[in-house]
Amino acid sequence: MTTTTIFSDATIKGFQKGHRKSSMFSQNVYQVEVNGEDGDYLTFEIMADSCAEATATAEQLAMDSMVDIMYINVTIMG
Prior knowledge:
By secondary structure, the protein is α+β, with helices and mostly antiparallel strands. The protein has one helix at about 50-65; strands at about 1-10, 15-25, 30-35, 40-50, 70-75. It is built from one helix and five strands, in the order ββββαβ.
């Protein structure tokens, strides 16, 4: 789960105004390591809703790089 918080302060005509905005994202960050048959090694950080979605995205990125996948290692980062 990732949280982004934005703070801002402003002084307008002698009055101080504060603003706080928080956003929650349902997606997690996954570190995906792709090992190819020819010794190729790719590492990606992917935001996805599930491990399966992160794996599918990494497979597509590896195919775009013309890497023949031997195995994929997926680790959740947050």
